[in-house]
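Suppose a classmate hands you a notebook page containing two proteins, each written out with its sequence and a corresponding row of structure tokens. How would you begin to make sense of it? This section walks through that situation. The first entry is reproduced here exactly as it would appear on such a page.
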Amino acid sequence: MTRMTVEPFEVTIDWDPPVTGSPEYVEKVLTEDVTSGLFSYVVNASEIIVRALCEVLREAGFQVLIDHALGETYNDRVLAALRFPTF
């Protein structure tokens, strides 16, 4: 998970599957082979994990926003921490 400050919100959530460091994946990215099954796996797996993380945070009481940025990508943001922890 990547923690990155983005204005005007607090934290964005991102996750990259371990395979993104593999030579096979790097080759697909460099050749812009977006039709590759490996490329599709990385995109889909990342979206599933990030959405799950957002739902866990939301259920835990955090304020979460899935922001559709620039019409191409989503920025998954944690807007605020718990004011009153529930534990």
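The notebook's second entry, a different protein, reads as follows.
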Amino acid sequence: MFQSRWFNPVLQHSTLARPHLRSARSLGRPLLIAAALSILASCGPTPEQAIEDAAAAEAANREVLVTAAFVSVQGGAAALAFLPNNDAASLGLIVSASREGGLDLFDADGVLRTRHAGERLSGLATAPGFQLRGENLPLIFGAAPDSNRVLGYAVVTDGIRVLDLPLPVTTPADGVAGLCLYHEGVGYVDLVILGTGATAEIWRVRDAGGDALDVERRQNLTLNAPARQCATLDGDIYLASPAGGITRIGPDGVIQAENDQSVTSLAVGDFNGSRLVLATDGASAQVHTFYALDLTPASELTVVDGLSTPGITQPAGIAITPVTYGFTAYASGMIAVFDQDDQRIKVISNTAAARALVSAG
């Protein structure tokens, strides 16, 4: 990582987006007015309305400085997740599923702490506070589509070691395409398991005292289209489908909102009271944002160069945590994004993101 976690995100430049040029704001406003007047000449709206429309279009595009970038590793990142440390915030980890298979664990300074060989994983979920035999043992779960299995891993924080976790072989009727965390409780964790077809299941994984963790199927869900990525917030499940766009379903599986925007990765979070879905499509340079309640478009977020770190050119996998990772920059958590352009994980402090997404405009 090229920037210290002592970096204060409140002092970051977080503005409405302009084209890739980093020119002064004073140059942009006259051009905006000129464009509005040009529209007036051809279409006939009032000057005030033309300027308001152009300003609204500008307000839909936001900029935020990247906070830091991790070291580049072979294999890139197919999925991202967070494994915070509730006892020592600065010792939290960021988990990446390598596109070549296995797991990469980074610390909050962006340093690769360990690599664990294994199958290719298309989705990740973590349970940082899981109680195993009465001891706190952070867990990672991964969707392995090649073998149609859900795999488990235990993380030994002393020395940062990853151990394969024995799970009973439980295969959904529709296979495994992805997964995400639904809820973590005392001694158990609930997971959303996405099938290869238009189905999903909710599993409960718990320590029942046996040689392996117990897996219980608790709910079957019928979806409007096959989903490949998911995220959850307060019991609602947000699904990303190559065919059906983004869907929000309630705990009963009933569709609450839909948007036909095609995305490849999504995450949901609360930014100063505004609940937003952040999504990427793997092709555009912006992170798309939507209001979590009804999935209407909110803004397009461009992550620009930081003090000594290049911005994000081609965002792919994305994850959000509200949990502190210590020091000033990550006191309110962070957003992690994999940049396909330079094959690096890059992070944005939630404080800076909230200023750009909520306060600007």
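A careful reader of the second entry would note: The first strand starts at residue 61 and ends at 65.
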